[in-house]
Amino acid sequence: MNYTIRNAQKSDAVHMLALIQELADFEKEPNAVQVTLEELTEAGFGERPCYHCFVAEVNQQVVGMALVYPRYSTWKGPVLHLEDLIVTKAMRGTGIGSALLKKVVTYGKEQGVRRIGWEVLDWNEPAIAFYESKGANVMRDWDVVQLNEEGIERFLEQ
């Protein structure tokens, strides 16, 4: 399988959004994607980029992506957050996911981070097995905590 892993470009945003929607569908949240193409493009390729993205191409077609952004840990210092690593269903098992993850880890090392972190759904056993096979520590005793827009409003009204 011949593929290329490269830095995403502004013109890739439309393909990135399609991959994000594919992931939402897979995670049984088909209506959860709110980000628009314009927002995704501005956030990644505008004046002040919020994230860095790598894409995987096969025959000049985007078939995967890994989107990361910097965070800061009060315990570790600079860390990197992997928001999404997505490979189209047709291309899973071809090594593209491993190549994307290696690119993220290499990028993190180049950035001098002390940790790379991400979340995985507890029912996504293939992804958990994949990450553990790469040496990742899946911390099953931690829960993800979030405030959505409605939760933010309710909190501020209290």
TrEMBL record:
Domain N-acetyltransferase: 3-150
UniProt-listed CDD domains: NAT_SF (cd04301)
GO molecular function: N-acetyltransferase activity
PROSITE patterns cross-referenced by the UniProt entry: GNAT
Alphabetized UniProt keyword annotations: Acyltransferase, Transferase
Listed InterPro entries: Acyl_CoA_acyltransferase, Diverse_Substrate_AcTransf, GNAT_dom
Keyword rRNA-binding: no
Xref: Pfam families: Acetyltransf_1
Family assignment from sequence similarity: Belongs to the acetyltransferase family.
Name the record gives this protein: GCN5-related N-acetyltransferase
